[in-house]
Design goal:
The protein has 181 residues and is of the alpha/beta class. It has one domain: Phosphofructokinase domain (Rossmann fold, 3-Layer(aba) Sandwich), CATH 3.40.50.460. 35% of the residues lie in helices and 18% in strands. The chain has five helices and seven strands. A five-stranded mixed beta sheet has the order 6-2-3-1-7, sandwiched between helices. Strands 4-5 form a two-stranded antiparallel ribbon. Helix 1 crosses helix 2 and helix 3 crosses helix 5. The C terminus is likely disordered.
């Protein structure tokens, strides 16, 4: 379902996952816009970020974080702030694959229990990202420098246009949701 089976072009359930993710994000978009928030949505993807990347490319989200590359929370926050500022409804959405990892960190597991194949159950990275976004201090000099520089491809965007950041807008709150289709 994650579209991560070696030697194949397509996995059963993948298109349903992408379609459902796009539908859910579009349903939640009104809430994000009416409250002018960041929306962090965790989706499937232990080792492959296709379930986050394709809906983002289709316009469902502003950014996606994938497990293939570790990401920097400060840089992600700066990009989300820039996306939020250029959006007339003042919100920004990021899709986070369940296997995504912070720079210097490891995968986030729900507990110690394993499935029939011995894999620990993933879950919670979306909630952690939502909490850490609130803790990132917004320094306009750092934010301006970071959005204009080239960074790792860990944070993908459907339309990454660097925007100057100004500290005049109120700091938005983060909303975390875990979605399993």
């Amino acid at each position: 379902m994650d579209n991560d089976v070696p030697g194949t072009d397509y996995c059963i359930g993948f298109s349903t996952c992408v379609t459902r993710t796009i539908q859910m994000v579009n349903s939640l978009r009104t809430s994000a816009g009416s409250h002018e928030r960041f929306m962090v949505i965790e989706v499937f993807g232990r080792y492959a970020g296709f379930t986050a990347m394709l809906p983002t490319m289709a316009g469902a989200a502003n950014r996606c974080v994938i497990p293939e590359h570790k990401f920097n929370i400060e840089h992600l926050t700066e990009l989300l702030v820039a996306d939020r500022r250029k959006n007339p409804s003042r919100y920004s959405i990021v899709l986070v694959s369940e296997g995504a990892m912070f720079e210097g960190g490891e995968m986030v597991f729900e507990g110690e229990a394993t499935d029939a194949y011995g894999h620990k159950k993933l879950g919670g990275i979306g909630e952690i990202v939502g909490e850490k976004i609130k803790d990132v201090p917004l320094n306009s000099t750092t934010a301006r420098k970071s959005t204009s520089s080239t960074r790792s491809s860990a944070i993908s965007s459907a339309a990454a246009i660097p925007m100057p950041l100004t500290p005049s807008l109120p700091w938005p709150t983060a909303t975390s949701l875990s979605i399993s289709s």
